[in-house]
Sequence to fold (546 residues):
Amino acid sequence: MTQAPSLDRLSLNQITTDRWSLQEAVDGCVRAEIPWISVWRHKIAEVGLKESKRIIADSGLHVSSICRGGMFPAATASEREERIDDNRRAIEEAAELGTDVLVLVCGPAPDRDIAGARQMVADGIEQLIPFAESHGVKLGIEPLHPMYAADRSVINTLQQANDMAEVYEAHQVGVVVDVFHVWWDPYVYQEIQRASGHILGFHVSDWIVPVPDLFKGRGMMGDGVIELRKLRNAVEAAGYQGPIEVEIINQAIWDQPGDDVLALMKERYKEHV
Amino acid sequence: MTQAPSLDRLSLNQITTDRWSLQEAVDGCVRAEIPWISVWRHKIAEVGLKESKRIIADSGLHVSSICRGGMFPAATASEREERIDDNRRAIEEAAELGTDVLVLVCGPAPDRDIAGARQMVADGIEQLIPFAESHGVKLGIEPLHPMYAADRSVINTLQQANDMAEVYEAHQVGVVVDVFHVWWDPYVYQEIQRASGHILGFHVSDWIVPVPDLFKGRGMMGDGVIELRKLRNAVEAAGYQGPIEVEIINQAIWDQPGDDVLALMKERYKEHV
Fold:
């Protein structure tokens, strides 16, 4: 029987406690003895990069990733160039905060041409690599659930993310495996195996039935149907031993006191992940 | 530039006018000069099979398919056997109403074991084939959108449906391509090509943004982002020239007068499909 993962690997993805500022989230992690945090850029923007860096450094926490770069497709070349610029800022923020992983939510199509949008994503990543490499930051392609294909990302399966990542070196581009997005995929275990050496992150939550909301509908681990431990075993068999981020977008969880959420997520992490 | 499809191929999938009885839906199709109808089993049950057969025969309509068989996974062997029995009734109904296609919505897992449930689907289809074959009815595996993996079907991509169908003869098992379920798939065009000779149905609607409801959220053709004509061209290039079912599950459309819905769907079919 597989053991629970070490608490040394637990990371709070900051969206899980969306009401908290960066300082509050960091303090919460310190109180709960959670050693990692994944930082969202809108939380950095609230206090500025310099202050964010000080908050993280003072806390002793490690940053597992920055959320998020991406959003490459746009209707015009100048808009696409603006998106690239924004991704360069995200890479700088990742480097400043001491993480080598920028999570890419690749973006929706500006029109009905989904294949064209997918090409824009590939082009954007290609264009970004030298800058990312020079900052020691890897680009983590996170496939999003197909139900977000129209409004959040045109990258929707691990197979597709692997197809895009495998043409690059592992220190340039990899994939991020979020169980909420990939659990349903009949080919997920073979694609996790195929991603070996290219896995840059592992995110956990759960798929609850019925889903309360298309966007804010993720569940706490153990409350849904996802085979969390089986998926963790698979990413570990593929060589991933890095931080495990708890990323839960759910209004009911946001409405609870942050300390309670962190206590529950530690419990569920031990029991179900 | 590709032409609109012939109205000779247009079929009303009865769920689109869910408030109508079978008689009302048949009458509506006759008034609107829609030559095909896809009949749902709960509508057959309302009046009985004999009366349903008379209603169809008197109208001169053709039946494009029966919705639905499937729902194979269950917790116990006896429950699974009951599901098979129910599928046998569905096959008899298809044969009686003069269609050779039974659409399979394969069913969710009874627990967290999604791979086990997928095996139960494969076993169920295998078991059903001789009975279906003896009735001249083909089993159409319809992959459902991955957002339904937990509560409606563990068959979620065309690749997966093709993997299951291709071990059988085309007169035994095939796939049903519903644009709402597969439009997002980066491999959908290669899988449609691969399904050549095995395509038993083509269903249209649209993916509207934002999706108003996880289940009752399908849009009228043209109101969303799906590349309908491109997908129709692909299924035709793969040899499918059969009926095109309009299948829209949407509360706002159900609340409109059925004749208005049929008029609009004819227009949109010509313009967008």
Remarks:
- The first helix of chain A runs from residue 22 to 32.
